[in-house]
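Anyone else keep sequences and structure tokens together like this?

Example one:
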Amino acid sequence: MACKKDHSDLSDIMSNLPYDQGGVGRHKCAACAYKKGFDAGYSLKEELDINEVLNGLEESQAASQRHKSPHAAYALGYYDGVCAKTNSK
């Protein structure tokens, strides 16, 4: 099922991610991947299976996250989450 969430708040972040047309995670919503990564980074989760995370995401949608790398989105989200956690202390 295609993602129907409003990810307009992430359009700048999505526009800077690399394109990805193949492999695990193909056609997965990169904005959802970013948000999952952010949550994991903020809570400092260390052990995860990225393929499991990506398989659990909805299909991609149009706009700035179309054909963007969900792997890169998750990694950036994780980094941003860790930084947000560190800066909140």
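And example two:
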Amino acid sequence: MAWFILFVAGLLETVWAYSMKLSDGFTRPGPAAVTIVAMIFSFGLLAVAMKSLPLGTAYTVWTGIGAIGAFVVGIVLLGEAVTPLRVLAAVLIVSGLVLMKVSSPA
């Protein structure tokens, strides 16, 4: 269950990163509010997952899910560039996440 909670926390990290971008420096109230709420829930779920997962594993996976999510959202919704090096970087991040999961005792 901790892994599922951690996954949702990572997805919420992607939500708050995207809504922060949309908030235009917290000058737009709607996206700014979504950012703050998603942050609170993301951090809260991370804390719950850390009750049974090692710190290094939980934090690394959480940030990795957020990084990959932001990468995909940037491409799909914001029209950011898809270059071979950016894709390679994303593949390396995902590879690291898989290794963290496989090597975790929990």
